[in-house]
Amino acid sequence: MSTLNHATPAKIARPVGRLVDEFQSGLDAPICLTWELTYACNLACVHCLSSSGRRDPRELSTDECKAVIDELQRMQVFYVNIGGGEPTVRKDFWELVDYATDHQVGVKFSTNGSRIDAEVAQKLAASDYVDVQISLDGATAEVNDYVRGPGSYDTAMTAMQHLADAGFEGFKLSVVCTRQNIGQLDEFKAIADRYKAQLRLTRLRPSGRGADTWDELHPLPHQQKELYDWLVAHGEDVLTGDSFFHLAAYGDALPGLNLCGAGRVVCLIDPIGDVYACPFAIHDEFLAGNLRSEGGFQKVWRESELFLELREPQSAGACNSCQFFDKCRGGCMAAKFFTGLPMDGPDPECVLGHGEQLLADRGDDLLPKPSKDYSKKLSKRQRLEQAAAERGITLPDVLPSEVRAGIEQMPDRACDENPLAGFAVQQR
Amino acid sequence: MSTVTPASEPDSATPVSDPRGAGVDLGQPWTLSPQVALRPERFGALAYHFGTRRLSFLKSPQLLAVVEALADHPSAREACRAVGVTDAELPTYEHALGTLARTDMIVPRSPA
User: Checking DSSP bridges between strand B44-49 and strand B54-58, what pairing results, if any?
Assistant: First the structure.
């Protein structure tokens, strides 16, 4: 493969600094990026970053996706992390993967495993340029399915078995760390080892549907220390996507660059071509532009107001006086935003506890409203069950006829009306 | 030369350059792996191996020049000299190239 000529940066006058500083001030093209191909998903994980479920009819067409790949090839973006939604539900998914790898754009795609049968696993094992990442958020079905839905544990394990049987070594087992699974880190490692996969641990973000579940799912302070110690002990064996640099204040920095690459060296392309600063920031606040506009992705990357702003030196704000600021750099921008904290202050999970106090003092009216929500609308029966569960009521398998009649009269769309209004359901 | 995991969503962890690691044999001919693409940057270059899905950072423009010169010279030492590496700097490049060789970014070339 040849070295393409690269456009001369416009910032020649600036002296070349440390690698981290170079990245902080942005590159002419991302190092890699995340590309959510669809918002459609056959699961409904309670922490989904992109609030996925239903397909957006404005989704990029096959030809538009290929044009994006051509542009990424020209910019020498060597690989993309494809996700969704569940990207494999797109009919042209394999066509796009093949197109990318034929055009010097490597692919790693994230999947819940539902489409990874024996045949697909063989095909994947035969390709050098494609990597697979299976999502699993519990080392047991009980813990996983609580977050990812019934049956999703078995689906992921079956997919990993197919990959292992096909001889695909080193695929990724990707785990979002939660309060419920921090105690299972050794078990996750054992599962990865069993399938000759590599374990990848990432941070739970309060983004998408995660905004609604973060309070319940995010690791407790003592679990963060447990996680940090575990990561230090396992070093380079375990991937983290540079997720945990906010934990660096515990001691030594974890492997990785330990910086927020949002809009500087990474970004997100969403299914309709919107370009966001990072995968955890699908919100108008972090929307740089749309690649369907004139000038395409390259213009958004190089010229958008938001990205240029992110490449300027950032204010440390309230963290200015902290001796660990150089290590954690105030943590994750998206985590702060979606928990209603100021951007120039501590991360909500600041290991010194500065975030907790701010969260306690913050009113809920400061929480941002979501810009996009593709969550599937619930059926009337599901809404009834949900409302009942919230009230601690167990519904009988067969509903009394008057309740069934009442359900029929419920409005089709979710609204503020209590779906249980007017029904006398026996409370146990 | 260092090979570190990039910010957010890396494909593959790469070891930070190991000072104890062996250097490359400067007397032998080397070349950039045909599976590796280079992207020049102000600080040096990104190097991506499509086969191992490993990303590395060449941390100086001169190291990039050395890597690009490898294929045109009978030995790594001569490639270094051709782009202006001094004798005093040679050990640094010996180790940097060693790291690249261990990760298959550069590969031995049969003598012409």
Answer: antiparallel
Task: Quote the radius of gyration of chain B (alpha carbons, Å).
Answer: 13
pTM of the model: 0.86
> Rounded distance, CA A50 to CA A24, Å?
25
Report the C-alpha gap between A376 and A45 in whole angstroms: 11
Q: What number of residues does chain A have? A: 428
In 3-state terms, what secondary structure has residue A96?
A: helix
Residue A196: CB atoms within 10 Å: 14
**Contact in structure between B54 and B103 (CB atoms under 8 Å):** yes
Report yes or no: A55 and A90 within 8 Å, Cβ to Cβ.
no
Six token digits for residue B66: 């050395």
For A261, the closest of B2, B7, B59 (CB atoms) is: B7
- Other residues' Cβ atoms within 10 Å of the Cβ of residue A97: 24
Read off the tokens for B74: 């009978």
Which residue in B66, B61, B73 sits closest to B100, CA to CA?
B66
**3-state DSSP assignment of residue B89:** helix
Do the Cβ atoms of B80 and B47 come closer than 8 Å?
A: no
Provide the angle, in degrees to the nearest 10, between the axes of the packed helices A152-165 and A118-126: 50
Q: What is the DSSP letter of A365?
A: G
ipTM of the complex: 0.83
Joined together, the tokens standing for residue B102 give 């261990």
- Residue A385: both structure tokens together: 């069950």
Q: Which of A243, A296, A304, A314 is nearest to A77 (CA)?
A: A296
**Residue B40 is nearest to which of A6, A23, A259, comparing CB atoms?**
A6
Residue A205 in contact with residue A279, Cβ under 8 Å?
no
Q: Which residues of chain B have a Cβ shorter than 8 Å from any chain A Cβ?
A: 2, 4-13, 15-16, 34-43, 46, 48, 50-51, 53, 55, 57, 59, 68
Angle at the Cα of A262 from the Cα atoms of A109 and A319, rounded to 5 degrees: 135
Alpha helices in chain B (DSSP H): 61-69, 76-82, 90-102
Average confidence (pLDDT) per 10 residues, chain A, 428 residues: 42 71 94 97 96 96 98 97 96 97 96 98 93 98 96 98 97 98 98 98 96 95 96 91 90 82 97 97 97 98 97 90 89 95 94 91 84 83 75 77 72 48 45
Torsion of CA A304, A269, A366, A310, to 10 degrees: -40
